[in-house]
Design brief:
Blueprint (H helix, E strand, L loop, with lengths): L3 E2 L11 E6 L6 H13 L5 E5 L11 H8 L6 E4 L6 H10 L7 E4 L2 E6 L14 H15 L5 E5 L14 H7 L6 E4 L7 E4 L6 E4 L7 E8 L2 E8 L8
Parallel strand pairs: 1-12, 2-3, 3-4, 6-7, 7-8, 8-10
Antiparallel strand pairs: 2-11, 5-6, 9-10, 11-12
Protein backbone atom coordinates (compact mmCIF):
# COMPACT_ATOMS: atom_id res chain seq x y z
CA UNK A 1 0.00 0.00 0.00
CA UNK A 2 1.26 3.46 -0.88
CA UNK A 3 0.50 6.84 0.58
CA UNK A 4 -0.44 10.21 -0.81
CA UNK A 5 0.98 12.95 -2.93
CA UNK A 6 0.32 16.68 -2.91
CA UNK A 7 -0.49 19.30 -5.51
CA UNK A 8 3.06 19.29 -6.91
CA UNK A 9 2.93 15.59 -7.73
CA UNK A 10 3.20 14.41 -11.36
CA UNK A 11 0.04 13.66 -13.34
CA UNK A 12 -1.79 10.48 -12.41
CA UNK A 13 -0.54 7.50 -14.40
CA UNK A 14 -2.48 4.68 -15.99
CA UNK A 15 -4.27 2.65 -13.33
CA UNK A 16 -6.61 -0.31 -13.29
CA UNK A 17 -9.21 1.83 -11.52
CA UNK A 18 -9.15 5.58 -10.93
CA UNK A 19 -11.49 7.06 -8.32
CA UNK A 20 -12.50 10.69 -7.87
CA UNK A 21 -13.07 11.43 -4.17
CA UNK A 22 -14.47 14.65 -2.76
CA UNK A 23 -16.43 15.98 0.20
CA UNK A 24 -17.91 19.21 1.50
CA UNK A 25 -19.15 20.60 -1.80
CA UNK A 26 -21.58 22.74 0.22
CA UNK A 27 -23.86 23.32 -2.75
CA UNK A 28 -21.20 24.78 -5.08
CA UNK A 29 -22.07 23.47 -8.51
CA UNK A 30 -19.27 25.55 -10.02
CA UNK A 31 -16.66 23.91 -7.77
CA UNK A 32 -18.03 20.46 -8.58
CA UNK A 33 -17.81 21.20 -12.31
CA UNK A 34 -14.21 22.42 -12.05
CA UNK A 35 -13.16 19.40 -10.03
CA UNK A 36 -14.79 16.91 -12.40
CA UNK A 37 -13.18 18.57 -15.43
CA UNK A 38 -9.75 18.57 -13.79
CA UNK A 39 -10.06 14.93 -12.77
CA UNK A 40 -11.19 13.82 -16.22
CA UNK A 41 -8.29 15.68 -17.78
CA UNK A 42 -6.00 13.19 -16.02
CA UNK A 43 -7.77 10.10 -17.36
CA UNK A 44 -10.89 8.00 -17.23
CA UNK A 45 -12.72 7.63 -13.94
CA UNK A 46 -14.19 4.36 -12.72
CA UNK A 47 -16.02 5.62 -9.62
CA UNK A 48 -16.98 8.95 -8.04
CA UNK A 49 -17.18 9.10 -4.23
CA UNK A 50 -19.04 11.92 -2.47
CA UNK A 51 -18.28 11.91 1.27
CA UNK A 52 -21.04 14.17 2.57
CA UNK A 53 -21.98 17.82 3.05
CA UNK A 54 -23.06 18.07 -0.55
CA UNK A 55 -25.36 20.95 0.46
CA UNK A 56 -25.17 23.79 2.93
CA UNK A 57 -27.08 23.63 6.22
CA UNK A 58 -30.32 21.81 5.45
CA UNK A 59 -30.83 23.06 1.89
CA UNK A 60 -31.88 19.90 0.03
CA UNK A 61 -32.82 21.92 -3.06
CA UNK A 62 -29.07 22.25 -3.68
CA UNK A 63 -28.57 18.50 -4.06
CA UNK A 64 -29.78 18.23 -7.69
CA UNK A 65 -27.31 20.96 -8.67
CA UNK A 66 -24.46 18.83 -7.38
CA UNK A 67 -25.69 15.45 -8.62
CA UNK A 68 -26.43 16.93 -12.06
CA UNK A 69 -22.70 17.49 -12.44
CA UNK A 70 -21.79 13.86 -11.86
CA UNK A 71 -24.71 11.60 -12.78
CA UNK A 72 -24.81 12.47 -16.52
CA UNK A 73 -21.25 11.10 -16.89
CA UNK A 74 -22.58 7.58 -16.44
CA UNK A 75 -19.80 6.91 -13.94
CA UNK A 76 -21.04 5.14 -10.78
CA UNK A 77 -21.63 7.73 -8.04
CA UNK A 78 -21.51 6.48 -4.44
CA UNK A 79 -22.40 8.95 -1.69
CA UNK A 80 -23.29 9.56 1.92
CA UNK A 81 -24.96 12.62 3.43
CA UNK A 82 -23.14 14.80 5.94
CA UNK A 83 -24.16 16.65 9.06
CA UNK A 84 -24.88 19.84 7.08
CA UNK A 85 -27.09 17.92 4.63
CA UNK A 86 -29.70 16.54 7.01
CA UNK A 87 -32.10 13.62 6.75
CA UNK A 88 -33.85 15.00 3.65
CA UNK A 89 -30.66 14.79 1.60
CA UNK A 90 -29.96 11.36 3.09
CA UNK A 91 -33.34 10.15 1.88
CA UNK A 92 -32.92 11.71 -1.57
CA UNK A 93 -29.56 10.00 -2.02
CA UNK A 94 -31.29 6.73 -1.21
CA UNK A 95 -34.03 7.50 -3.74
CA UNK A 96 -31.50 8.21 -6.50
CA UNK A 97 -29.62 4.99 -5.78
CA UNK A 98 -26.39 6.83 -4.92
CA UNK A 99 -26.46 6.22 -1.18
CA UNK A 100 -24.18 3.63 0.39
CA UNK A 101 -25.16 4.57 3.95
CA UNK A 102 -25.39 1.26 5.78
CA UNK A 103 -25.12 -0.53 2.44
CA UNK A 104 -22.51 -2.51 0.56
CA UNK A 105 -21.78 -1.99 -3.13
CA UNK A 106 -19.34 -3.55 -5.55
CA UNK A 107 -17.90 -1.54 -8.43
CA UNK A 108 -15.01 -2.76 -10.59
CA UNK A 109 -14.36 -5.55 -8.10
CA UNK A 110 -13.93 -3.08 -5.21
CA UNK A 111 -16.14 -3.22 -2.13
CA UNK A 112 -17.67 0.00 -0.83
CA UNK A 113 -19.84 0.87 2.18
CA UNK A 114 -20.71 4.12 3.90
CA UNK A 115 -21.55 6.02 7.06
CA UNK A 116 -23.47 9.33 6.89
CA UNK A 117 -24.01 12.17 9.38
CA UNK A 118 -21.58 12.86 12.24
CA UNK A 119 -21.38 12.35 16.01
CA UNK A 120 -22.71 15.07 18.33
CA UNK A 121 -20.52 18.17 18.31
CA UNK A 122 -22.37 21.35 17.34
CA UNK A 123 -25.94 20.57 18.22
CA UNK A 124 -27.57 22.46 15.35
CA UNK A 125 -26.72 20.12 12.46
CA UNK A 126 -27.68 16.51 11.67
CA UNK A 127 -25.82 14.60 14.37
CA UNK A 128 -26.46 11.09 15.66
CA UNK A 129 -25.08 8.98 18.48
CA UNK A 130 -22.01 6.83 17.94
CA UNK A 131 -24.10 3.69 18.33
CA UNK A 132 -26.12 4.63 15.24
CA UNK A 133 -22.98 5.37 13.25
CA UNK A 134 -21.60 1.99 14.32
CA UNK A 135 -24.81 0.26 13.21
CA UNK A 136 -24.61 1.82 9.74
CA UNK A 137 -20.97 0.78 9.46
CA UNK A 138 -21.49 -2.80 10.59
CA UNK A 139 -24.52 -3.26 8.33
CA UNK A 140 -22.69 -1.90 5.30
CA UNK A 141 -19.58 -3.94 5.98
CA UNK A 142 -21.60 -7.15 6.28
CA UNK A 143 -23.49 -6.41 3.07
CA UNK A 144 -20.29 -5.51 1.21
CA UNK A 145 -18.90 -9.02 1.51
CA UNK A 146 -15.35 -10.10 0.76
CA UNK A 147 -13.27 -8.16 -1.77
CA UNK A 148 -9.54 -7.72 -2.41
CA UNK A 149 -9.98 -3.98 -1.76
CA UNK A 150 -12.48 -2.49 0.71
CA UNK A 151 -13.25 1.21 0.93
CA UNK A 152 -15.27 2.99 3.60
CA UNK A 153 -16.89 6.32 2.70
CA UNK A 154 -17.77 8.26 5.84
CA UNK A 155 -18.49 11.93 6.33
CA UNK A 156 -16.88 12.05 9.76
CA UNK A 157 -13.22 11.05 10.01
CA UNK A 158 -12.14 8.44 12.53
CA UNK A 159 -11.56 10.15 15.86
CA UNK A 160 -7.90 10.99 16.45
CA UNK A 161 -6.75 10.25 12.88
CA UNK A 162 -4.67 12.22 12.24
CA UNK A 163 -3.71 12.89 15.85
CA UNK A 164 -5.82 15.54 17.52
CA UNK A 165 -8.55 15.60 14.87
CA UNK A 166 -12.06 15.11 16.31
CA UNK A 167 -14.27 12.57 14.64
CA UNK A 168 -16.21 9.37 15.15
CA UNK A 169 -15.05 6.93 17.80
CA UNK A 170 -17.23 4.26 16.16
CA UNK A 171 -15.30 4.62 12.89
CA UNK A 172 -11.95 4.69 14.71
CA UNK A 173 -12.80 1.55 16.68
CA UNK A 174 -13.94 -0.27 13.54
CA UNK A 175 -10.55 0.29 11.90
CA UNK A 176 -9.01 -1.81 14.66
CA UNK A 177 -11.23 -4.77 13.74
CA UNK A 178 -12.25 -4.53 10.11
CA UNK A 179 -9.97 -4.84 7.12
CA UNK A 180 -10.61 -1.61 5.25
CA UNK A 181 -7.87 -0.57 2.85
CA UNK A 182 -9.00 3.02 2.49
CA UNK A 183 -11.28 5.41 4.38
CA UNK A 184 -12.57 8.42 2.42
CA UNK A 185 -13.93 11.22 4.61
CA UNK A 186 -14.35 14.98 4.97
CA UNK A 187 -16.11 17.07 7.64
CA UNK A 188 -12.97 18.56 9.23
CA UNK A 189 -11.69 20.73 6.40
CA UNK A 190 -8.39 21.51 8.09
CA UNK A 191 -7.50 17.80 8.32
CA UNK A 192 -7.15 17.45 4.56
CA UNK A 193 -4.54 14.89 3.58
CA UNK A 194 -3.61 11.23 3.92
CA UNK A 195 -2.79 9.41 7.15
CA UNK A 196 -1.74 5.81 7.59
CA UNK A 197 -3.48 4.15 10.53
CA UNK A 198 -0.98 2.66 13.03
CA UNK A 199 -0.25 -0.87 11.87
CA UNK A 200 -0.20 0.13 8.21
CA UNK A 201 -3.34 -1.64 7.08
CA UNK A 202 -5.54 1.38 6.32
CA UNK A 203 -5.10 4.76 4.67
CA UNK A 204 -7.39 7.58 5.79
CA UNK A 205 -8.03 10.22 3.13
CA UNK A 206 -9.64 13.47 4.20
CA UNK A 207 -10.59 15.10 0.90
CA UNK A 208 -10.77 18.63 2.29
CA UNK A 209 -13.39 21.15 1.23
CA UNK A 210 -14.50 20.73 -2.38
CA UNK A 211 -16.15 24.15 -2.27
CA UNK A 212 -12.58 25.48 -2.06
CA UNK A 213 -11.44 23.28 -4.94
CA UNK A 214 -10.00 20.40 -2.91
CA UNK A 215 -10.38 16.77 -4.01
CA UNK A 216 -8.36 13.59 -4.47
CA UNK A 217 -7.66 11.01 -7.13
CA UNK A 218 -7.21 7.44 -5.94
CA UNK A 219 -5.49 4.94 -8.19
CA UNK A 220 -5.73 1.21 -7.66
CA UNK A 221 -3.63 -1.32 -9.52
CA UNK A 222 -1.62 -4.46 -8.89
CA UNK A 223 0.88 -2.44 -6.84
CA UNK A 224 -1.72 -1.22 -4.37
CA UNK A 225 -3.29 2.19 -3.69
CA UNK A 226 -1.87 5.57 -4.63
CA UNK A 227 -3.60 8.78 -3.51
CA UNK A 228 -3.09 12.15 -5.19
CA UNK A 229 -4.36 15.08 -3.11
CA UNK A 230 -5.37 17.85 -5.48
CA UNK A 231 -6.69 21.40 -5.64
CA UNK A 232 -8.20 23.07 -8.67
CA UNK A 233 -6.40 26.38 -9.27
CA UNK A 234 -8.52 29.44 -8.63
CA UNK A 235 -7.85 32.71 -10.41
CA UNK A 236 -9.02 36.16 -9.36
CA UNK A 237 -8.67 39.44 -11.19
CA UNK A 238 -9.23 42.93 -9.85
CA UNK A 239 -9.87 45.51 -12.53
Amino acid sequence: MRGGSGEQSPPAREAAVRILALADVHGSQAAAERILAAAQDEGDLGVILLAGDLTRFFTPYQLPRVLDVFLPTGIPVLAVAGNCDGPAVHRELERTGCSIAGRGRTVAGIGFCGVPSAPPHRGHTWEVEEAELAAWLEQGYAEMGDHPVKILVTHSPPDGIPEGVPGSTAVAEALNRLDFDLVVCGHIHEARGVTCVPGGRTLVLNCGCAADGHYALVELDEQGILVHVRQVPQHFRKE
